[in-house]
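Database export, one record per block. Field names are fixed; values are copied verbatim from the stored entry.
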Amino acid sequence: MGIAKKKTFALRLTPKIMEAMEKWAADDFRSVNGQIEWLLHNALKNAGRWKKEN
């Protein structure tokens, strides 16, 4: 089992959204990038669009 490669892309956020994400990430002891990844992962799972890896 190896480390999965991650793709990079630009994400434009309003200053208000970025400020809220920075605070939320800090509250959860994560980077903003890690917080966004966690948020997307949970949204995919909750929508039934995440296939569990073996």
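Remark 1: The chain has a mean pLDDT of 92.
Remark 2: The CA atoms of residues 25 and 31 lie 6 Å apart.
End of record.
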